[in-house]
Write a structure and sequence with these properties.
The complex is a heterodimer.
Chain A: H1 8-12, H2 15-18, H3 31-39, H4 43-64, H5 68-84, H6 95-121, H7 137-147, H8 151-161, H9 167-174, H10 178-196, H11 205-214
Helix pairs in contact in A: 3-4, 4-5, 5-6, 6-9, 8-10, 9-10, 10-11
Chain B: H1 9-16, H2 22-34, H3 36-53, H4 62-76, H5 95-135, H6 152-157, E1 168-169, H7 177-192, H8 198-202, H9 204-218, H10 226-232, E2 244-254, H11 257-270, E3 274-281, E4 289-297, H12 301-309, E5 313-323, H13 325-351, H14 356-388, E6 389-398, H15 411-468
Parallel strand pairs in B: 2-6
Antiparallel strand pairs in B: 1-3, 2-5, 3-4, 4-6
Helix pairs in contact in B: 1-3, 2-3, 5-15, 7-14, 9-10, 13-14
The chains are: A mainly alpha, B alpha+beta.
């Protein structure tokens, strides 16, 4: 079967669009080197980094924030934060992890602030997607299914599936043990599968229960 | 069937994610080759991922790309870049800091409250400590008995028989100015009632001398010989020499306190003096002292002083004298005139007869003059007493030797005392906290409800909003 190619699943998805440099991390032009080069004053280094990560970072926010304009803002803010902190950058972790950590901080701050505004001003936080858009049905379905997952489970699943981070990287980002990441990821995937195969939901109930036991 | 699988489904998932070790990967791969069930599980995972992968995202807008590249250039050139938008602040207080801030605020309020309560407590504690010390029978007594005017009988009847460390003060009636005042008051009343008062107050001197032996008898031998010298010592009566009211203050440090006290009594007896006031303080671990206000006949002053000085080392001595000759002469003259006036009034009353109004007027005049005479006589007596009896303010201090007390509290006792004090403090603190909550607990609870309920509502709304963002 396809078991001979274990990492196929990750690489298949979105490779062309979002993760063009996945295999390049260890090369001479690694992200970390580029970041250090930019800190040293090389404009090209940042340009290269930006072209590598603009799409993943934008995707990161676009999938987590309903409003596309906000996603753009947050993307810009993330790169600005990286720019500002470039002189203090130390390659202790992968640049990718660092970048997403910054992204997470900015996302959390945005969520807090938006929730705060919604609480105080009574503004409905939910962004109404325009009726006319080229969204496929599967996208709407996925978005809805994702919101039904437990928050951390959803985050782990998204980081794995879209950002294609390793378990260890996810664990570091979310401050969780690696084993927890694995079991939660398993649970999230099982739950998502059930959600996508929603009708009829009862048929899959025993299997779900089984998966819960293992968690 | 599941039990026959050497790998859990989670491990299959990890294998698909490339998150297992090489040996495990080989084993799982081999297992998948022939296990249909596990293969279908793997297929399910792949399908889920496949579905997710269809959630694609549009390309980064060119405007955003340009904006970031501009920012990069500015940053590289050292231009300070502003915030791009309202949202996305990175430095927002995390929840932990909020919790910490709120917690410390509450703690501050609690501590403040506890301190204010314990401050209030400390006053009563102070009292209780003093009380405890007295109860414990520590020999730090400082008892003072004062007698007011007219309080002589009461005082002298009081049992002042304790051997050590008792203080009593006295105002001897005969020579004191109060002795004159009291009868004057009575006189006024008597005159107002129109009663004949001559006989009664003619014997004023006698009244004085009569009462004094009583005082002497009752005062435990501290006051001596008053009866004797009131008869003998009015030396200034009719004497033309200068009248000087002397005051001596003497501070003596004695070695043997107990002995000096008895010799003080002996000196007083020998010189016909008495003590108007006597305070003895015997605190623990501090020098004992006697503070006495003595009255010594002026004629015996120098010898009495010499005797007093033998008690110990004189630390301080001062003498002062007030010349009262003029005052006395004046008084005597006025007294003489008043007596003359009184005599003439009486003559009028005896020789002349008139209507009732006239008689009453004359009697009124007599009463007035008589009152003046009494007052002046009392004044004269007081003045003469001041001249006859020199006031000696004596301060006897024990020469304090910080003695190496063989009965000094042992370590165990001190530890014990510290423990007791510590327990006391701890219980006071606990009590203070309890009192604080008893006093303000209900109010705090009320405020908590007032503040927390909206906070909970806001928090719930916030959570809800956060979930939808």
């Amino acid at each position: 079967m396809s078991a001979a190619k274990p990492v196929a699943m990750s690489i298949v998805m979105n490779e062309a669009l979002e993760n063009p440099e996945a295999e390049k991390a260890a090369t001479a032009d690694s992200d970390e080197r580029l970041m250090l080069a930019f800190a040293g004053g090389s404009a090209e280094a940042f340009s290269e980094l930006f072209s590598r990560y603009k799409q993943p970072v934008f995707g990161f926010f676009r999938r987590r924030v309903a409003d596309p304009a906000q996603a753009e803002e947050l993307t810009q803010e993330t790169f600005l934060a990286v720019l500002r902190a470039s002189l203090r950058y130390e390659p202790r972790a992968l640049f990718r992890t660092y970048l997403y950590a910054v992204g997470f901080r900015i996302l959390r701050a945005y969520r807090r602030k938006a929730a705060f505004r919604a609480t105080l001003l009574g503004v409905a936080g939910a962004y109404r997607e325009p009726a006319v858009r080229n969204a496929t049905d599967i996208e709407v379905l996925l978005r809805q299914a994702m919101t039904k997952l437990e928050r951390t489970d959803r985050e782990i699943l998204m980081l794995r599936e879209f950002e294609q981070l390793s378990y260890a990287e996810i664990a570091e980002l979310l401050n969780l043990p690696v084993n927890t990441v694995r079991s939660r990821l398993f649970r999230a995937r099982a739950a998502l599968r059930d959600l996508l195969l929603a009708p009829p939901p009862k048929a899959l109930a025993p299997e779900l229960a089984e998966s819960e036991e293992r968690v | 069937m599941n039990t026959t699988h050497p790998f859990a489904r989670e491990e299959v998932m990890a294998f698909l994610d490339g998150e297992v070790s090489a040996t495990d990967a080989q084993a799982i791969s081999a297992h998948l080759e022939h296990c249909v069930e596990c293969t279908s599980v793997a297929e399910q995972f792949r399908n889920t991922s496949q579905s997710l992968s269809r959630w694609s995202v549009s390309a980064v807008p060119a405007m955003l790309e340009q904006a970031v590249r501009d920012l990069a250039d500015k940053t590289r050139l050292g231009v300070k870049t502003g915030k791009p938008g309202l949202f996305g602040r990175t430095s927002f207080w995390p929840r932990k800091q909020w919790a910490f801030g709120l917690g410390s605020a509450v703690a501050t309020i609690l501590i403040f409250g506890a301190v204010s309560t314990s401050n209030r407590k400390s006053v009563s504690q102070h009292y209780s400590v003093d009380f405890a010390r007295v109860n414990a029978g520590q020999p730090s007594e400082r008892v003072q008995v004062w007698s007011g005017p007219g309080g002589l009988d009461k005082l002298t009847n009081q049992p002042v028989s304790d051997q050590e460390s008792k203080v009593f003060s006295n105002q001897i009636l005969p020579p004191s100015p109060y002795s004159g005042k009291l009868p004057t008051g009575e006189l006024g009343a008597a005159v107002g009632g129109g009663l004949p008062v001559n006989g009664r107050f003619g014997g004023f001197d006698k009244l004085v001398t009569q009462s004094s032996p009583g005082a002497v008898a009752d005062s435990n031998g501290l006051f001596h010989g008053l009866g004797d010298h009131t008869q003998n010592s009015f030396t200034t009566n009719g004497q033309p020499g200068p009248m000087i009211a002397r005051t001596v203050s003497l501070s003596v440090v004695v070695k043997d306190f107990a002995a000096s006290r008895s010799s003080l009594n002996a000196i007083l007896a020998r010189h016909h003096g008495y003590s108007a006031q006597l305070n003895i303080a015997t605190p623990e671990n501090a020098p004992r002292s006697i503070q006495a206000s003595l009255r010594v006949p002026a004629t015996e002053l120098s010898s009495a002083l010499a005797d007093l000085k033998t008690l110990g080392r004189v630390e301080n001595e001062s003498q002062s004298g007030e010349e009262v000759t003029q005052q006395h002469t004046d008084l005597v003259a006025r007294l003489k005139i008043s007596r003359e006036t009184e005599r003439r009034f009486r003559a009028i009353l005896e020789q002349r007869t008139g209507n009732v109004v006239d008689v009453l007027q004359v009697e009124e005049g007599i009463a007035r003059v008589r009152g003046d005479i009494e007052r002046m006589e009392a004044e004269q007596i007081a003045l003469e007493h001041r001249v006859d009896f020199t006031a000696v303010e004596l301060q006897l201090n024990e020469e304090y030797k910080a003695q190496l007390n063989p009965a000094a509290p042992s370590v165990s006792i001190r530890v014990h005392n510290s423990l007791v004090a510590g327990y006391h403090n701890a219980s006071e603190t606990v009590l203070g906290i309890l009192l604080f909550f008893a006093e303000y607990g209900l109010t705090l609870l009320l405020w908590l409800v007032i503040l927390v309920l909206p906070a909970i509502l806001v928090r719930r709304r916030y959570r809800k909003a956060l979930a939808t963002v």
